Amino acid sequence: MSLLESDTTGQGQQIVLFSANSSLQTGLLAKLIGDELKLDCSVHRELKSVPGNTSVLLIDCNGQDLENLSKYVREIQDSFESVTAALLNAEYESEQESLLEWPCVSGLFYVDTEQEQLIRGLKCLLDGDFWVPRRLLHTFLDKNRKAPSNIKRPNVKLTKREKQILKLIKDGATNADISEALSVSEHTVKSHLYNVYKKIGVRNRLEASNWVRDMDDLED
Prior knowledge:
By secondary structure, this protein is α/β, with parallel strands linked by helices. It contains eight helices and five strands.
């Protein structure tokens, strides 16, 4: 089994580093991530070879233009129901940052991200949180922040479980917190989140939290 194209045989969480132009350096990075986080981290050159139960999928931006990266993200969005994707080796103040608008993309690491920051960010992503540079977070808040609205949202048919999850998200719960509170697996939580995001028309956790706050009530 090669370092660059290893199969996932362990149980539990796993990270995949997707790199269309993978090299020895890419393989060494995957090994470092696996050793630091004590989980399986493999490199794949094609998205079709990525296991469906991948926890975090890192998309290597190195040598890729926005058109290719957008194609990859679209394929991930359509093919993986509950995977958390993140951009790796992204360039500062580039159009690559706009890919964070996709619901499946929850993190971004710049090309000069230090090892310690990378590992911290991956831990957050594995816990169901976001990892976004502070500058981009401020930009997002300035763009999307608005005064509370009393306009009622259209009726959306949510299951009891989906309502429970939305309430927990509003309280700041991570996927791990929700999993423990509801006695379900994190994979199940991610599947519910994917479905509820589509139902209420939001793209991410922050928008879902705002959606719940704008509701007058969320009956069980």
